[in-house]
Structures are given as C-alpha cells and as structure tokens.
Amino acid sequence: MDKMKVAVIGMGNMGSQYAEMIAGGKVEGLRLAAVTRMRNEVRERLNQVLPPELPVYPSAEDLYEAVRQKELELDAVMIATPHYAHRDQAVMALKLGLHVLCDKPAGVYSRQAREINEAASEEKLVYSMIFHQRTNAVYRKMKELVESGRYGAVKRVNWVVTDWYRPDFYYKSGSWRATWKGDGGGTLLNQCPHNLDLLQWICGMPKRVQAFCHNGKYHEIEVEDEVTAYLEFDGGATGVFFASTGEAPGINRLEISLEDALLVCDKGALKVCELGFHEPDYRRTATECFKKLNGEWHTIDCGGENPQQLGILQNFSDAVLKGESLIVDGKEGILSLFLSNAIYLSSWEKRMVTIPVEGSREEREFEEAFERRLAEAVAESNVK
User: Fold this and answer.
1) Which of 11, 80, 108, 246 has the fewest beta carbons closer than 10 A?
2) Calpha distance 254→197 (Å, rounded)
3) What angle do CA 382, 383, 384 make, to 5 degrees?
4) What is the pLDDT of residues 262-272, one digit of tens each?
5) Contacts of 208 (CB under 8 A, 6+ apart)
6) E strands within the chain?
C-alpha cells in the first residue's frame, strides 16, 4: 500500500495533535481515515485541517464495530485515551488485524502491558509506543556513551524532575484527574512515564527500589504529587529519582556518574567531566589522601535532532510500510510500568521491592501484589 489508513482514538490534547499532523500531511505514508468524537473547541481548532467527510465515531467500540462490519477500512489505530482504556483498545485493534501506536503509558499496571504484548506477538503486527523523548539527541547520546563503555561502568544515577509544575486548576479541570479510579495515579503515571522509560533505556532496569510517594502534599488530590525513589542496579550502581508537580522554579537534571567521567544533562545541554584515567585503578594505587579529582569539563555536540512525536509517527509509518526498525518497540512499554508499579508498591508497603524479570513466576506475584494495593487505594478513595 502507498498510504496507511489510520484512525485516531481519543481526540483530547495529544490525540488531536496527532490527527492534525496526519491530516496536514506532515507524516509521509499516513492518511487519516477516522477519529472518535471530539470536544467542540477541538473541532473548531481543527476545522481547517480535518477533511469534511472524515468519519467521526462516538467511541472506540463504535469505530471497531464499523471495521468488523466492513463499513470502515483501516490499517492501523493511534490510541490516545485515558490510561485504563489502553489495554482493551489496543488488544481489540490487534485482534482486528490493525497495527497499533499507543500513547504512554501502556496501561496503569504491568499486566495490562503484558496482555497487549501477548496479543501483538500472536497477531504479528507492528505495535509501537509514543515514548518520543527517545528521539531527543541528548538522551540518544547519553545512551550511546553509557553503552559504549568509553567511560567505564555506571556508579550512580540521579534524576531530579521538578519542571512538571501544575496549579490546582490543572487537577480540577477534569473529575477523573488525580484519582486512583479515573487516572490510576499522579505524577508518576501522568508526568513521569517518559523519564522512567529513559532511565531504564539509558542505564538499564534497576533490580530493586525503595520509594516514598507523598499524596496531596501540594494539591488537594488523593494521589501523589511528589515522589522519591532509591534504586539499586546489578553491578552495584545506585540511583535516586525525584519528581514533583509542586516545586518552583523547576529543574530537569540528569546525572550519570561513571568510573571515568560524569555526564550531566541540564537545560537541554549535555556536559561531560572527563577524569582522563580509570578511577578504580587510581583509587587502589594513589598515595595522596586529600587530592581532589576535578577532571576536565566539555560540552558535547549531540547533533540537535529532536523530532519528538512527529518522529515517532513517521517511524511507525516507515515500520509498517518499509519494514524499518521501531524506535520504540511497543513491548518495551511494560518496563516503565514495572518501575512505576514498583515505586507505588514500595511506598504502600513501606519496603524495598524487587522488580521482576519479564516472563518469570515473580512477575505474576508482582502483578497481583500491585493490583491488590491499587484496588485498596481505589476503595479507600470511594469511601472518602
């Protein structure tokens, strides 16, 4: 096929942007074939872009039924609905033989992601996720440097993300927002999936986590608006992840301490402090007790490419039509959920939680423990 016929399910803030990109011809190989219902203000904004004859369905279920009845011809769907709906809508699309591009996260809990992965494997279709920060040249360069071993092994990771500031009005703009039942969580599940995805993508998946989630610390909400997580990795590396929607001025600073250098991503720029020697060897042989090892700082030219969501949409099109490799294989969507679910579970149970290996018996036990605690949080909020 020359062009893939795509439907956008969920015409809110992000879904309407994806529809606008496709209808505006910004994504080679994609043609907008249908959308689900949209608010009047969205319809007015896109009035000049969307084709007047474009089918608009009341819901995902109605759109899928039109496909079953052969009233609508589709090749793929893009899902940008609330988190809890992602699993059912993605699996339904895959069972209908449709390729799937899903916005983050894959679901609220890791079992939902696992079930999408199982359906995608069974149907042998393209399944990708919109973790568009992987297209950022700075993060790509950090991953390249860490994986190359040029500066030795990772010792420490520290990520402080407080540029997600939100006023009370944000949380009051929808009754589902910042609720366990409607949203499935707070800053971890809404603002931080990209950060959690990048953390494990660049440094590898932590093995254990001890975390503290503060619910409604800065806003009158039932879910967390501040998170501190201590991470342990295989090989001895440790890390701290901190996020908040109630701190200003905000920063977004990622530090990765390696054996022979320090990488710092701050304000969109990447710097490296190179020691010029292998620190573990120096440590074992040095005789100067109080010498400061300062190293030499350099700013790294990362190339500047940062196509964001448009890059992911184009890659999805190219993967289906040209067989190109995915920037984000949808099956990796479970990894950020392992992290967020483990952080929640650790905070609820006040203990260190081991992150399971995908496909293991421990994964099912982890799923059950998290879902039980989430159900308790939902029940408690209903009582209030």
Assistant:
1) 246
2) 13
3) 90
4) 999 999 999 99
5) 231, 232, 352, 353, 354, 355
6) 4-9, 30-36, 56-57, 76-79, 99-103, 127-130, 154-161, 208-215, 224-232, 238-244, 252-258, 261-266, 269-274, 296-299, 353-354
Residue 135 gets which letter from DSSP? G
How many CB atoms lie under 10 A from the CB of residue 333? 29
Distance CA 84, CA 372 (A): 16
How far apart (Å, rounded) are the C-alpha atoms in residues 367 and 226? 23
User: Tokens for 132?
Assistant: 């568009």
Q: Enter the DSSP assignment of 379.
A: H
Q: State yes or no: pLDDT of 146 exceeds 90.
A: yes
pTM of the model: 0.96
Q: Given strand 56-57, what is the order of strands in its sheet?
A: 56-57, 30-36, 4-9, 76-79, 99-103, 127-130
Name every residue whose Cβ is closer than 8 Å to that of residue 215 and which is 6 or more positions away in sequence. Answer: 186, 221, 222, 223, 224, 225
Per-residue pLDDT reduced to its tens digit, 192-236: 999 999 999 999 999 999 999 999 999 999 999 999 999 999 999
